[in-house]
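re: that complex we talked abt at group meeting.

here r the seqs, copy pasted straight from the sheet so there may be weird spacing, ignore it
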Amino acid sequence: MTMGNHMKTAAVLLTVLATPSFAQDFSAGSEAKSWNLYSEVPARFDATVVDLMCNMTGDCPADCGGGTRQLALLRSADNVLVFPMKNNQPAFTGAANELQPFCGKAVEVDGLLLDDPEIGAQNMYLLQRIREVGTEEWIKANRWTKDWEAAHPEAAGDGPWFNRDPRVQAEIATNGYFGLGLEQDAVILKELFP
Amino acid sequence: MFRQTLTCGLLAVSGLAAPAYATEDGTRITITGEFIDTWCYFSGVMGSTDSVVGTSHHTCATWCSAGGVPVGLLTEDGKVYMVLKIEGDTNNNGGDTLLNLASDTITADGLAYERDGLNYIVVEKVVSNAGITRLSHEDFGAIPPFAVPEPKE
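got the structure back, here u go
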């Protein structure tokens, strides 16, 4: 083999190793349930739970911010930073609360990646279940509403949390459903519900 | 020789890969954009991207912000910056500052970061706030429709 061939082989290898994340398929073994999203791709992989702000800026509190920050998954296979934007509840709820107990830990996750480069959706994730590496039992990513109920005993009642949330109620009471103020809101409501 | 070349190649790959807690300086930018609910925008769960911005989606954007769904700044050229921090408030998991700015269009000074195809921003200063400027309810009504209950007589 000539020196030129060696270099070509190495170049090919480098290209393969440096190919972006979606060249890899993480669907093996996934039991993720479909949400019927246009760009969803089942994905089960090992990762480390990291604090996004810390990862970008070096501002790194010991406990990943204690639940006040968005967290991410640094995928073990390729060092790609995956952003979990959604937990497993169809309730307008994010994934940070689900990841907080695993701050800094090695985990295995199962869920849905979004892959729609046309609008910039890549390395975004809907987390459905998680477990610490080395443990057997999966934990469903369904804790958000329990956390909310514990934090808002005064808002106990029927119906979904977002119709009872004090901050959401205050926003609607001040600026209306469309955010333009109560006077304009009334005009729009008359148009929508003549 | 091949082994040496391969080793050099692997070292090069290792050098390119960022460590777990890599820090960067960020790029200073000034941008104008709308605070959006990134899950509804990127997942398409509620429909087209046009329908999940502005007035039509304001109530849902408020729900999602309170629910800890990441908030993004959507610029006119369609780029979305995930907000890491805003004017000293690092609570981007349902924090008050971002909740109160849902759907507003602001001009912001800050530091931008890029990692694995996604853009992030630390907003250091909100230079101006134009409020909600996109009157998307004119085309879409309320998205989702159940976000706005029919007024009782």
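couple things i noticed - DSSP finds six helices and six strands in chain A. Chain A touches chain B through 75 residues (CB under 8 Å).
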